[in-house]
Amino acid sequence: MSYNKVVPALVKSSYDNIKRICLSHGRFRSTVASTQRDEVEGGKEKQVDECTVVKAVQIEIDFDNTHEAYKSKDNIELLRSLLVFKLCTFDFLVDKNKELMDLSKKVFGQRLFERLMKMTFYGQFVAGEDHNSIKPLIHKNQAFGVGSVLDYSVEEDLTQEEAEKKEMEQHYVSCCFLTLGVDHREKKYKAHRQFGDRRGGVVSARTYFYADEAKCDNQMETFLNCIKASGGASVDGFSAIKMTALGRPQFLLQFSAVLVKWRRFFNLLAAQQGKSGMDALEQKLELEQLKIGCAYRTEFDFEYVIYIMSPRTIDLLDWNSLINDRTSISNLLVIPNVETGQLEPLLRKFTVEEEKQMKRMLQRVDVLAKHAVDNGVRLMVDAEQTYFQPAISRLTLEMQRIFNREKPIIFNTYQCYLKEAYDNVSVDMELSRREGWYFGAKLVRGAYMYQERSRAEEIGYEDPINPDYEATNRMYHKCLEFVLEEINHNRKANVMVASHNEDTVKFTLEKMNQMGLSPTENKVYFGQLLGMCDQISFPLGQAGFPVYKYVPYGPVNEVIPYLSRRALENRGFMKGSQRERSLLWKELKRRLLNGQILYKPVY
C-alpha cells in the first residue's frame, strides 16, 4: 500500500473539512491568545460572539475565613473530617486500609460495618448510595454556592492477577491475526503483562477492564443514569465519563499509535524544511517543497493537495484533517514508514466483529453526548494513560465539533504533568477557533505519574512526565493563562480549574481580575473532590464563582476500592500540609467560644 494510493483517498474524503478550514484562513488569529481587552466602541462594551462582556468587579477571596469555609457543616461533620484526615496520616492504616476494612466487615457484620463507614470514610468522601439519597447533600451544597459533578463510583474489586489476565486476554484477541506476523507499533502502544493491572501506582482515578460488549453497554447505562441524575439535581450540572469503559481499550491503543506516528511524520517533514524546534502550530509545511522533495508522492497527489489548500502551506491541523472520521476504521490503521516511503498496516485489517466493536464504542459515545444535551448536562471526558490519550482526545474533539456549536457541552481533560500539555491545549484551541465551536477544557495536574514513569523506564521509551512538581506547576499555569487569554479575547473558551492547590486558585483569581473576567459570565469554573478542600470550594461559591464538587455515590460495599484510593491520596496530601486540619480546628474552637455547640447550617 503506497502513499500514492492511500493519501489521495484520505485527502479526498477530507475535502469538505479542509475546504471549510481554508476558506476561513483570513479570520485566523495568532495561536498566542491576545492579552488585550476588546476595545470599547462608542462608550459601550463591545459584544463578542453574541456574548455580552461584563465589566468585572475586583474580587478578593479570604481562604482563611473558616466561618465562610465551613458554614455548611455542623460540628459533627467537622469532627468527622478531623478524624478521617488524621487517620490518613498513619502509614500502617493507609497501607493496610483494604485489609482492615475487610476485617472490620467480618468482625462487626455487614450492617454495623456500613454504619461505621458512613460515620467515617464513606460519609466524608461519598454522597450516598443512589440517586435519591444524594439529593439532600447536592441541594445543601447548592444553597452555599457549590454545584456537583456526579460520578457513580462503583468499581470492580479485582486481584492483580485477575486484572492482568483481563488486560492481556483482550490484547491477545486483538493481535492474534497479524499479517505475516508483522507488528509496526512502538513498544509504548502495546500491552505489557507487568503493567496489565492499570491500577498500579494510581490513587486518584478509576480503572475499567474490558470483559465483553454487554459489560460496555451496562457501563454506558450507568453513565446515562448519572447524566439523568445530574440533570434532575441542578440546572447546570456536569457528569464525567471514561472512554475505556465504553469499548475495547486495545482500539484506543491502536488508534493512538496511528495518530502519534502521523504527527511524528509531520514533524520529520517540518525538520527537513528547517522548521524543527518551533511550537506545534508555528510549523507550516511548504507544499511546493514537499512536491519537489518527497520521492514517494506523485505529481498528481501534490497538485490535488495544492488545489484544495490556500494558502499553500499545511500546518498540523490541516495535516490531522487528512485522517477523517468518515474514513473506514480499518483503513485508518496505517502508518508511514519514513525509510521506505510506504504506508504500512499497523497490524492488519480488523475482523468483521472487531469493526463492529469499534463502531459500537463510537456509537456509545454519541449516545452519551446526545443524552447530555437533552438533559442540559455538560459532559467531561476524563484523561487516561498517555498510550490511550491521543485516541481519547481525538474522539473527544470529534464530539466537540458536533455538540459544542451553540454552547460548551463536551469538555476534554488535559493533564498538565505531561511535557506536551501546552501543545495539546494550543492545537485543540486553534481548531475550535477555525471551525467556530466552543472550546471546553478541564485542567488537572494528572493521576498516573508513578505508573507512567515506571512503565517508560521499564519498557524503554521517553518519560512523558515533566521532571518535577515545579515544572508541572509552571505547565499548569501556562496552559491556564493561555485559555484565560482566549476567554478574554472572544468568550468562546471555557475552562474547569480542577485543582486542590490554593496557589493555583489564587493565580486564577489574579489573572481573572487583571483581565476583567467576571465570575458571572460562567466561563471559568473551579472543581475539587467531595470531602476535600472545603476552605477553597465554599468561599469561592459564596463569592459567586462557579465551583463544583466531584460527588461520588454508590453502595458502601461497591465503593470500597474508591475509598481505598481516597485514603492513599489523602496520606500524601495531609502529610504535605496540615493547613486543612488547622482550619477545621480553628472553626471548631470559634464555635465553642461563641456558644455554638449545637450549630446547624441554615439554608
Question: Could you characterize what this model shows?
Answer:
The termini are far apart. Helix 4 (75-87) runs antiparallel to helix 24 (579-593), helix 18 runs parallel beside helix 20 (469-490) and helix 20 (469-490) packs parallel to helix 21. The chain is α/β, with parallel strands linked by helices. The strands form 4 sheets. Strands 3-4-9-10-11-12-13-14 form an 8-stranded parallel barrel, surrounded by 8 helices. 51% of the residues lie in helices and 10% in strands. The chain has helices spanning 3-13, 15-23, 66-70, 75-87, 91-95, 97-119, 121-125, 135-143, 160-175, 213-233, 249-272, 287-293, 299-308, 316-320, 329-332, 352-374, 389-403, 421-435, 449-459, 469-490, 502-515, 534-542, 560-576, 579-593; strands spanning 47-48, 51-52, 146-152, 238-241, 285-286, 313-314, 334-337, 342-345, 378-381, 410-415, 439-444, 493-498, 524-529, 547-553. Strand 12, helix 21 (502-515) and strand 13 (524-529) form a beta-alpha-beta unit.
- Widest sheet, order of strands: 3-4-9-10-11-12-13-14
Helical amount: 40-55%
**Anisotropy-based shape:** globular
Largest sheet: 8 strands, parallel, barrel
Compute the number of helices. 24
EC number: 1.5.5.2
Catalytic activity: L-proline + a quinone = (S)-1-pyrroline-5-carboxylate + a quinol + H(+)
Pathway: Amino-acid degradation; L-proline degradation into L-glutamate; L-glutamate from L-proline: step 1/2
Family: Belongs to the proline oxidase family.
